[in-house]
Specification:
alpha/beta, Aspartate Aminotransferase, domain 1, seven-stranded mixed sheet, four-stranded antiparallel sheet
Length: about 375
């Protein structure tokens, strides 16, 4: 029983077959060869960019294909923030951010003299919007926020938050890793400056993802990495860079992976993201009810709007012991700090267990998980 989809999603047959078909029948590098295989590979690769763009409701030329959200955020940090920030400037993040949306900003702050401000959460795990708004003072140049928390499942009101920042001339970056696989995402309607996704969480292969950015940002930002494909002409007295998004895509990409990600977009779209969200809300409600019925279980995060992520502990038991014993019962859950140390510190615990179902899970699996958890709790009592 796989209840770890917040970590990585399972892959449907269509994705596996798309990757297999590329290697068997079309394997070549992209954008470099005039032979038939090269043309086929390039067409399939750029086709995947188009599928992902439609999935997010953005233009393909605004979408940088990269290894995932971590790379995407670092791209913004070093190519957009580093040239702009100065001593006295500030970046705002939230208490619930993944390390990938904290550490790059700390590194940039150290190099520029900028400071980091932290927006806090209430006892339910919702962002304190009033406190967040109070942090958006004139020295703030960037607000970085998760669309959905990977620990609490909190769905942040990103449209409202981005509108709040935009009125003050503050750029916004939204980490969409936990949103894109589980709910409809219309990036154009959010009103952010940057939006980052990870492919392997949305039924695609690992090592895939994307950064969406407003066109004016992409045109103004210098390249993050140098090498092949990101250039038009190289001379020893100066180099002319390619147009965006290609100027940010140095080297040979994960061609098969992105073709698989395109297939994943087709697969998710064929089901319908509204249908996926509705199904997962049913699973979340059932999971929460089953856990609430077990003595000694503490759930972290009961936000007003929440995705299918439930972090929990059993009184007197360590998260790793719980996860290990559940694994022996055939249940896969995540244990640890979930790359969210500041959030663990906020709750005063070193780690939690996290059960994160997806639309492919069943109510019967959740029932079996709850029964296994009761058994494990009794063993640890």
């Amino acid at each position: 029983m796989y209840l770890d989809s917040a970590n990585t999603g399972q892959k449907p047959r269509q994705v596996i077959e798309a990757v297999d078909d590329f290697f068997r029948n079309h394997n070549a590098n992209v954008s470099r060869a005039v032979h038939a295989l090269g043309s086929e590979a390039t067409e399939a690769f750029e086709g995947a960019r188009g599928k992902l763009a439609r999935f997010l409701n953005v233009r393909p030329n605004e979408l940088v294909l990269c290894s995932g959200t971590t790379f995407a955020i670092n791209l913004v940090a070093y190519s957009w923030a580093l040239p702009r920030l100065r001593a006295g400037d500030a970046i705002v993040v939230t208490r619930m951010e993944h390390h990938a949306n904290i550490v790059p900003w700390q590194l940039i702050a150290e190099r520029t003299g900028a400071t980091l401000k932290v927006a806090d959460i209430d006892e339910r795990g919702d962002l304190d919007l009033a406190q967040l708004e109070s942090l958006l003072t004139p020295e703030v140049k960037l607000l970085a926020v998760a669309h959905v928390s990977n620990v609490l499942g909190t769905v942040n009101p990103v449209r409202e938050i981005c509108r709040m920042a935009r009125k003050r001339g503050i750029a916004t970056l939204v980490d969409g890793s936990q949103a894109a696989p589980h709910r409809p995402v219309d990036v154009a309607s959010i009103g952010c400056d940057f939006y980052a996704i990870t492919g392997h969480k949305m039924a695609g292969p690992t090592g895939t993802g994307a950064l969406w950015a407003k066109r004016e940002h992409l045109e103004a930002m210098p390249p993050f990495l140098g090498g092949g494909e990101m250039i038009r002409e190289v001379r020893f007295d100066g180099t002319v860079y390619n147009d965006a998004p290609h100027k940010f895509e140095a080297g040979t990409p994960n061609i098969a992976g992105f073709i698989g990600l395109g297939a994943a977009c087709d697969y998710l779209s064929s089901i319908g993201m509204h249908n996926i969200e509705a199904r997962e809300q049913e699973l979340l409600a059932h999971l929460t009810d089953r856990l609430d019925a077990i003595d000694g279980v503490r759930i972290f995060g009961r936000a007003r709007e929440k995705a299918a992520v439930v972090s929990f502990l059993v009184e007197g038991a360590h998260a790793h012991d719980l996860a290990t014993l559940l694994d022996l019962e055939g249940v896969a859950v995540r244990s640890g700090h979930h790359c969210a140390h500041p959030l663990m510190q906020h709750f005063g615990v070193p780690a939690t267990c996290r059960a994160s179902p997806a639309f492919y899970n069943t109510f019967e699996e959740i029932d079996a998980f709850a029964e296994a958890l009761v058994k494990v709790r009794n063993l640890l009592a």
